[in-house]
TrEMBL record:
Pfam families: MLLE. The lineage of its organism: Eukaryota, Metazoa, Ecdysozoa, Arthropoda, Hexapoda. This is Putative polyadenylate-binding protein cytoplasmic and nuclear lygus hesperus. Residues 121-199 form the PABC domain. InterPro entries: PABP-dom, PABP_HYD_C.
Length: 200
């Protein structure tokens, strides 16, 4: 009786095959995925590879840190910058940076579809403008608030208390500016917190 035995699979090779299967969807080409896999797995023990297989966040961090991935992102970034600048010249650097936060497959889709790219640019521009408006509003509120806080505290303490109060929602800060009594109550709480922090 002849028993044929199947070849024993190498544990490391099985782990690498599984890792490649998880890395491939994150990359634009299978060749890039293999390059990233070789770079990631080169200095790892089987236990470390198993950790990557079980933790998607850890795997994504490893892929993003790989030189092959960074090089592809750099090349895509250059191409994306030129296409974005043709459509939105004023904010092209900011918008390109925002779009580069996307995965490489999505970036390649944007580069291959001008309509999709235009929609992404409009969305990114809207988000950026909203963010800058909120930042500007917060700065203006901070200046007004600081002037009021300086009436009660030395400048070095006033700046810290102002910073603490600016952590509140902008609408609430606006309300505090209009209500001296509520502002005083919030300042008392902030000052007590500040003293507790300074004492520890």
């Amino acid at each position: 009786m002849c028993i044929m035995s199947a070849p024993v699979l190498n544990t490391r090779q099985v782990l690498l095959d599984h890792l490649l299967a998880k890395v491939t969807p994150l990359c634009s080409t299978k060749l890039l995925a293999k390059g990233i896999l070789l770079e990631i797995a080169n200095n790892l023990q089987n236990k470390d590879i198993l950790d990557l297989l079980q933790n998607d966040k850890l795997l994504l961090q490893a892929v993003n840190k790989s030189n092959a991935y960074k090089n592809e992102k750099l090349e895509l970034g250059e191409e994306l910058f030129y296409k974005v600048s043709d459509i939105e010249s004023d904010l092209c650097a900011k918008i390109t940076g925002m779009l580069l936060e996307l995965d490489t497959n999505t970036i390649k889709q944007l580069l291959g579809d001008e309509e999709l790219l235009c929609k992404a640019i409009i969305k990114a521009k809207k988000e950026y403008v909203e963010y800058t408006n909120q930042t500007k509003k917060r700065e203006e509120l901070g200046e007004k608030l600081y002037d009021l806080v300086c009436e009660k505290f030395r400048p070095e303490i006033a700046s810290r208390l102002t910073g603490m109060l600016l952590e509140l929602e902008p609408d609430l800060v606006q309300k505090l500016l209009k209500s001296p009594k509520e502002l005083e109550e919030k300042l008392d709480v902030a000052y007590k917190t500040y003293l507790t922090y300074c004492d520890s």
